[in-house]
Amino acid sequence: MSQMKLYSRNAVRDIGARHGFHATKSLGQNFLTDKNVIDKIIDATDIGENDLVIEIGPGLGVLTCEAAERAKKVVGIEIDKSLIPILEFTLREYGNVEIINRDVMKTDITDIIEKAKAEDPGIENVRVVGNLPYYITTPIIMKLLEDGVPADSITVMMQKEVADRVSASPGGKAYGALTVAVQYYCEIAKVADVPKECFVPRPKIDSTVLRLDVRSEKAVELIDEKMFFVCVKAGFSQRRKTLLNCLTGLNGMDKAEIRLLLEGIEIDPMRRAETLTIDEFAKLANKVEKERTK
Ligand code: SAM
After folding, report:
1. Residue 143 C-alpha to ligand 1 middle, in angstroms?
2. Can you name the residues that pair with 74 across neighbouring β-strands?
3. Which residues pair with 192 in a beta bridge?
């Protein structure tokens, strides 16, 4: 089968018929059938000839083969065993592709990258790419960031609603713990909005591709990173409540102590977490940490 056919609606049906494959809804299998979108994702991934690409969920291989054309090596992590023989077939022309049949959530991606670099010291940038399965979009992004996977960029398709949350500004409904966490680790650029018509089977919702560039220096200076995330989580624990109420109990502090602490860093205790900038969250976390270790 030529590459041309891979991303057409008929190709998905033909491959399914030939291999007895049916898309599994619970695995978030919505295959991309729009060449323009595929090109946009691959262009935004900015793959150099000495780069290593890690693809999450290669599916039938539409992004994989385009990445393989440009990269030194591509490693695809695909959970669905029934897609492995299909990928062997669709990617048979590419000697630089390795498919690992595993759950990405249980995969040590840092280890894969280190091994690839040890095998080939000429590898330059590491690019993560994927049309992410919807049911675990946020856990995958957070795993990549929290595990400190040594990737230079992460270009991923996700539900539009999640992309809106990731790239939100303070003050709006979309701004939350996910926003603060991702923006703490990365600079974010929108690549494209992708309507549901670009997939087979067609999902119920539209999607967005974002490129996340992992910051070499974090967005804010923290005494203790863990305390920052404890404060963010506590702040957003009850969105409708004030910071004063949400933070009471934090680090064993009562209401009066929290009020004093917030006033000490010039944050109105009556504000809600969704109005705090990342800098303000950092100020809060650093103050709580100083109090804790006094
Ligand atoms: N990349 C293909 C494309 O764009 O057409 C497929 C994208 S589809 C939205 C998501 C892919 O992720 C599917 O192939 C699915 O089987 C795979 N997947 C789902 N859960 C996974 C997991 N936990 N680990 C690895 N792959 C997973």
Report:
1. 16
2. 53, 97
3. 209
Distance 111 CA to ligand 1 centre (A): 21
Domain 3-214, CATH homologous superfamily name and number: Vaccinia Virus protein VP39 (3.40.50.150)
Q: Which residues contact 182 (CB under 8 A, 6 or more apart)?
A: 141, 145, 166, 188, 212
Ligand 1, atom 12, lies closest to the CA of 57
108 Cα–ligand 1 center, Å: 17
Instruction: Please tell me the distance from the alpha carbon of residue 46 to that of residue 159, in angstroms, as a whole number.
Output: 22
Q: Express each pLDDT in 51-104 by its tens digit.
A: 999 999 999 999 999 999 999 999 999 999 999 999 999 999 999 999 999 999
pTM of the model: 0.94
Beta carbons of 78 and 104 less than 8 angstroms apart: no
pLDDT < 50 stretches in the chain:
1-4
Q: What homologous superfamily does CATH list for 225-292?
A: rRNA adenine dimethylase, C-terminal domain (1.10.8.100)
> What are the sequence ranges of the domains in the chain?
3-214, 225-292
Nearest CA to ligand 1 atom 18: 57
Residue 275 CA to ligand 1 centre (angstroms): 35
Indicate which residue's Cα is closest to atom 10 of ligand 1. Answer: 133
